[in-house]
Known about the structure:
A six-stranded mixed β-sheet has the order 1-2-3-6-4-5, with helices on one face. The longest helix is centred in the middle third of the chain and has 18 residues, at about 50-65. The chain has a single domain, classed as CATH 3.30.1330.40. The chain is about 20% helix and about 25% strand. The protein has helices spanning about 50-65, 85-95; strands at about 5, 20-25, 30-35, 75-80, 105-110, 120-125. The chain is built from two helices and six strands, in the order βββαβαββ. α1 packs parallel to α2.
Amino acid sequence: MTIRRVTSPAAPEPPPERWSNCLVVDGIAYVSGMTARGADVKDLAGRDEYEQSKIIFTKIKGLIEAAGGAMSDVVKITVFVTEIANNTKVWQARREFFTGNFPASTLVEVSGLAAPEIKVEIEAIAHIGKGMR
């Protein structure tokens, strides 16, 4: 088994020794739950679910591309929201990043995320290995 850590300027890394934003294991990229926070965890971009989701998908795209893949390689996303009634805003942003075969998706409403102002968190799995496109 080969494990490679992937970084991207699009998704600032957490402080050392907390977690990895993206690991590629034998051609499969695992992207940690992304939020709309910036490099300074006190900095949150995006006020609503649409804006936060768009920022998150941009981070995921940066990580997948840094791993050698494309958004069309994403096969699964898990979306965590604090208000399920606003899920159409998340899907609106998703349509801007995915076409054709949309990834398999799970939507989960949670009572809270890492901070009260965070409304959305998204994680992804992509098959970027040779011969998987």
